[in-house]
Design goal:
Layout: H1 2-102, H2 108-136, H3 138-143, H4 145-159, E1 163-169, H5 177-198, E2 202-210, E3 213-220, H6 234-245, E4 249-252, E5 261-267
Parallel strand pairs: 1-2
Antiparallel strand pairs: 2-3, 3-5, 4-5
Helix pairs in contact: 1-2, 1-6, 4-5, 5-6
Length: about 270
C-alpha cells in the first residue's frame, strides 16, 4: 500500500515537473516570439522611415533641379531683355536724336513729337533694365541676400504706393547660393501678393539670426485672408515648394481683416 502511494506521489511530482518545464518552454517561446515580433516591427519601421527619407530626398533633389532650371531660364530671359531688346531700343533712340537735330525750328510741331518719342524710348529703356534686374536680381548674385532685400525695400518705397521697413538682427554674412535665391524669391512673392491683393499701406519684414537658425517674419496691414482658402493657389504652392527645397518651415498666421503674417524658420546647414 505504501509502495503504491509512493508511486502515485512520484507520478504526480514528475508530472508537475514536466508540466512546469513545458510551461517554462511555452512562456520562453512566447517571449522569444514577442521579442522577435517587436524586433521585426522595429526593423520594418526603420526600413519604412529610411525609404520615406530616400523618397523625400529624391523629391527635394527633383524639386531643386526644377527650381535651378527656372532660375537659369530667368537669367536667360533677363539677358535677352537687356542685350537684345534694351540694345534695340537704345539704338532706335539714337536715330531719333539724330533726326530731331536735323529738324528746323520751323518744324516745331514735328520736333516736339520727336522729343516726346525720345522721352518714351528713354522710359522704355529704363523699364527694360528694371524688368531685367527684377528677374535676375543682379544685386543678389553680386552682393548677397541682405543687399538684395534692402534694394527691394528701396524700390518699393520709391514707388510711393506702399512703404516697406526691413530689420536685420544679428545678420550680416552671405548664405549658400541656393538658400539666398529661394529666400529672395519667397519674399518677392509675398511682396507681390501684398501689392496685388492686400490693399495694404505698409509691409514689415524682420530677419533674425540666432546661432544657426534664421527666422523671417513678414507682415502687412492689408485686408488679410483665411489661409485655408489659399492653400491650393499657384503662388502658395510655389512658396511651399521653395521653402521645402531648402528644408525650411513656413507658418501662415494670416487672418481676415487682420493683415498677412508669415513666419519662416530655417536651420542653416553651413554652420
Amino acid at each position: 500500500m505504501d509502495q503504491k502511494i509512493n508511486y502515485i506521489t512520484y507520478i504526480v511530482v514528475m508530472s508537475s515537473l514536466v508540466a512546469a518545464f513545458l510551461l517554462f518552454i511555452i512562456v520562453d517561446l512566447v517571449l522569444i516570439y514577442r521579442g522577435k515580433k517587436k524586433l521585426l516591427e522595429e526593423q520594418m519601421r526603420m526600413e519604412k522611415q529610411l525609404f520615406t527619407q530616400r523618397i523625400e530626398q529624391q523629391e527635394n533633389k527633383n524639386l531643386q533641379t526644377i527650381l535651378d532650371a527656372l532660375e537659369e531660364e530667368r537669367e536667360r530671359i533677363a539677358a535677352d531683355l537687356h542685350d537684345r531688346v534694351g540694345a534695340g531700343i537704345s539704338t532706335t533712340k539714337l536715330y531719333f536724336e539724330s533726326v530731331k537735330d536735323l529738324l528746323k525750328e520751323s518744324d516745331k510741331s514735328m520736333r516736339d513729337n520727336f522729343v516726346r518719342l525720345e522721352e518714351m524710348l528713354s522710359k522704355s529703356v529704363q523699364e527694360v533694365r528694371e524688368v531685367s534686374k527684377n528677374i535676375t536680381s543682379g544685386v543678389l548674385s553680386d552682393f548677397g541676400f541682405k543687399a538684395a532685400i534692402l534694394d527691394l525695400q528701396e524700390t518699393i518705397n520709391d514707388s510711393g504706393n506702399i512703404t516697406m521697413s526691413v530689420d536685420f538682427i544679428e545678420f550680416s554674412e552671405r548664405l549658400e547660393k541656393t538658400v539666398e535665391i529661394n529666400l529672395y524669391r519667397v519674399i518677392q512673392e509675398l511682396v507681390n501678393n501684398t501689392i496685388k491683393h492686400a490693399q495694404a499701406s505698409e509691409i514689415v519684414l524682420k530677419i533674425h539670426k540666432k546661432g544657426n537658425v534664421l527666422t523671417l517674419i513678414y507682415t502687412d496691414d492689408g485686408l488679410g485672408f483665411d489661409p485655408k482658402l489659399v492653400q491650393s493657389g499657384m503662388g502658395q504652392r510655389n512658396l511651399v515648394q521653395r521653402i521645402k527645397s531648402i528644408k525650411g518651415r513656413l507658418q501662415n498666421n494670416s487672418a481676415t481683416n487682420k493683415g498677412a503674417e508669415y513666419v519662416l524658420t530655417l536651420a542653416l546647414s553651413h554652420e
